[in-house]
Amino acid sequence: MTTQQNTMQANPYKGETPQNYEQKCPVVMVLDVSGSMGFPSGDSDDTTLIPIDEVNAGLKSFAQDVSADDIASNRLELCIISFGCDTRLEQDFELIKNIEMPVLETRGTTALVDAMYNAIERQEQRKQYYRSSAQHYYRPYIILITDGYPNEGQDVKGLAQRIGHDVEQKKYNFWPIGVTGADMEMLSSLACPGKGASLPAMKLTGTNFAKLFEYLSSSFVKISNSRDGENIDLAPDQNLFQVKV
Amino acid sequence: MAKHKKAHKNPWLVVGGSATGKAHLAKNTSCQDAFRNGRINRKWFISVVSDGAGSYEHSHWGSAFATKNAIAVFKELLKGERLLQGKSIPTAAQWRDMAITGLSFVYENMRFFAAEKDIHYKSLGCTIILAIYSSDAFLIAHIGDGRAAVKTGEDKWIPAMVPFKGEEMGETTFITSNATWYEASNRIGSRVIKQNIKAFALLTDGLESYTFVCNKKKNDSDSFYDPNQPFSAFFDHNTAWIQQLYSAGKTTRQIEDTLSSYLHDGHPAIAGEGDDKTIVMGALNT
To answer: Which of A106, A116, A115, A142 is nearest to A127 (CA)?
Structure first.
């Protein structure tokens, strides 16, 4: 056998691949910035830890971790909606590698239901844009992180019905996450575990926001590297949550 | 090493390879793709690939059954078929009738198979790409996604099918989907390529980004489109490679093992793909 033959047999094609645009993976983070997020939590041993500071640090590290992955950085589009006494679009959909992360500040009460409806509307509008530009996309994710209970008078039941209907219709996946003080019964009523890639209501152990955002970034790197966003092992490495994922 | 004797050479060298995707390996899920090759008569050959639906529990059984059964069904269906004798080549309409008939038999057989296993037939959900070919024509039929390409007598790689894709990533139709049979005109693809054929490839969608130009932005526009253009560098190199291996005396089995190994970790980008990857490549023996 000649050297050329040996080389051919040992070296199949390792060359360039075609230049294809990446399909987009839209994620909406719905974040509680109510007044209680500005005070140390009773759960933490470190009484200097302020939840809102931890969330801001977590958002930055989330962006860095996802941006470090070649594929995820070109697929994941992030939208951030905050809620306190009102709801605010902090960051509209943008590729995560292009985002300068907003700094969230606490304000007032907990307009959770309004924020969730805003998130539902924003992801629907984003899908319309994808359709109009003939782009395939991953089913969107809505991630809710809260430490409390919605303002009195907000229709939680109605929201639960809406989320249940939408998830059943495969419009988006929903991950509800509670931190210290959160009403987990309320969050469980919103959750749709087992439908698509939706998860049960999860309560963060302590105020480990750093680990939470690390879990989120590694999950979304896996999801955006997959072909259909499903059938991925999303179990956290450590037991981050009091409810097992 | 013994070389293959020319007298015993088939007109075609056809090999396939599969590799479990990275995401499936992490979850300890077996490969849900399958492929199989066979022969209809002296002139016509058949190859099939199938991709099991990720979210369906028994889709690995589905794809394995579909590929094996499709070969058996089409061999029986086309036995003695005058349209595949001599120089005759079916028209597009004739092939479409044969293809839909054959695939409907595969679907019914999958339902019987599911009943025997006491499972719901939808849990076998999988796509299928089936090609029947000679050196002067390529007949293809498909349900679902994946890609196919042929190399013409002018040494040009052209696409052989248009995959069925929904809006969302991974969204497609399966042999077991009700909609496939209610909307067969939209959901079952078929085509006759009446040209000299020198080589071909069938592949599941886990490989499409690395082997086809399939997502481009239009100039001066925010719109995207799928050119469905085979990436000839990949196909030319790899069909030449399998021919070299065969000329060096490797058996089909050995070549397939080598090809599967290549899909697993032989190319840096393909190795990182989360989905299962399967390709069947055929080249005329010269």
So the answer is: A142
